[in-house]
Amino acid sequence: MDGIDGVFYAKAAAYLGAAIAMGVGSLGPALGQGMIGSKACENLGKYPESSGQIRTTMMIAMGIVESSAIYCLIIAFMLAFMV
Q1: Residue 46: CB atoms within 10 Å
Q2: Residue 66 belongs to a domain with what CATH number?
Q3: What is the spatial distance between Cα 2 and Cα 34, in angstroms, rounded to a whole number?
Q4: Nearest to 66 by CA among 15, 38, 12, 25
Q5: Nearest-5° Cα angle at 79, 76 to 80
Q6: What domain range is 53 assigned to?
Q7: Burial degree of 17 (CB within 10 A; 0-12, 13-18, 19+)
Q8: For an engineered disulfide with 32, which of 8, 19, 20, 65 has Cβ 3.0 to 4.6 Å away?
Q9: pLDDT, tens digit (0-9, with 9 covering 90-100), for 3-37
């Protein structure tokens, strides 16, 4: 009976860890992407002639920020399905 309880607690802790990893891990990238988008819109309003360069730089920055959210998703999947 003691071994079964240990497995249950390990799975419960893994699921809780996966939920926390996704919750906290997606908060930072969401805020960062919002800030990147707002600054890009401000600069497009100020300098419309350089819209191509601003858009390219914004897309690269969005990709870099999004990669940390994808890492959190991978960790959450590993915690949920590997235990």
Answers
A1: 9
A2: 1.20.20.10
A3: 48
A4: 25
A5: 85
A6: 2-82
A7: middle
A8: 65
A9: 577 788 888 999 999 999 999 999 999 999 999 99
How far the first Cα of the chain sits from its last, in Å, is 19
Percent pLDDT > 70 in the chain is 96
- The count of domains in the chain is 1
| Residue, of 35 and 82, whose pLDDT is higher | 35
Per the structure block, which two tokens stand in for 10? 């390990």
How far apart CA 77 and CA 45 sit, in angstroms, is 41
Helices (H), 1-83: 2-46, 51-82
- Determine the Cα–Cα distance for residues 5 and 72; give it in Å rounded to an integer: 28
Cα separation, 61 vs 68, in Å, equals: 12
Distance, CA of 8 to CA of 79 (rounded, Å): 14
